[in-house]
Write the structure tokens for this entry.
Amino acid sequence: MLEWLALLISVIAAVVKITGGIVYGSKALFIDALTCIANLVAISATLYFHKISLMPPDMDHHYGHLRLGLGGALVSAATYSFVAGLSLVDLLRFKEYEVSIYAPLMAGIGFLLYLLVIVISKNIGSSFKSYSLFTVSELMESAVVIISSLAGALYSYILDYSGALIITSYIFYEVYKTLKDIVDKLSDKAPSANLQEIVINEFERNGLSINRIRLRCLYEGRIQGDVTIIVDPEESVGRVYKKINRVLRKLEKHGIELSVNIKPSG
């Protein structure tokens, strides 16, 4: 339900900014309006891939569909890249223009609406985290547009044009940051030392000695890996498995899924 509410508010915010960009002559607001269209594409893709990522494991995806949630972030990056290029081309066609005093008002309304979208997206979590990062840029852009379009209307269009340049530069930066985040999530990066310590301590607390541990961040809040433990050959198999199952159940509460290999001591 929250996902659809975020989508609805994004549509309203986009309509407000697009109308303002076309009607009130601000180049900064026009470029901001382009990012609104990108934002709509981004939230639609994020919603679609978020639903897929929640699907249980099947014959083609034995570990589930969690990483498909990154599809939303990829579509967001691609869409905003297109908008950044389009904005750059528009800015290169430099000519004098007039800015209406109503342009900053439209930007202000858009600012409040996207602030609400961010709050909702962060409450949804998981796949919507990357989307919320891009939507934060909408707030930054709205703030820049409010200032630059107001200055453009009162003083000179050059000030509004400068705001458009700032927004375009920021879009390129956000695309870079999001792509870097996607690469990090796909690189099987190890979790924090604190989380690794939790795993080691849990095994040792149950009398199990670790010979080797390998962990990777599968997705937001989900860790996957394998552990090799050393056991006394004299200890019964049933007792060892009872200890292992106790550890695995405890670690599942931290979002950690492990495969355990057993190696006899000596």
Observations:
- The chain has a mean pLDDT of 86.
- Residues 193-264 form a domain with the Alpha-Beta Plaits fold (CATH 3.30.70.1350).
- The longest helix spans residues 157-186.
- The first strand starts at residue 209 and ends at 219.
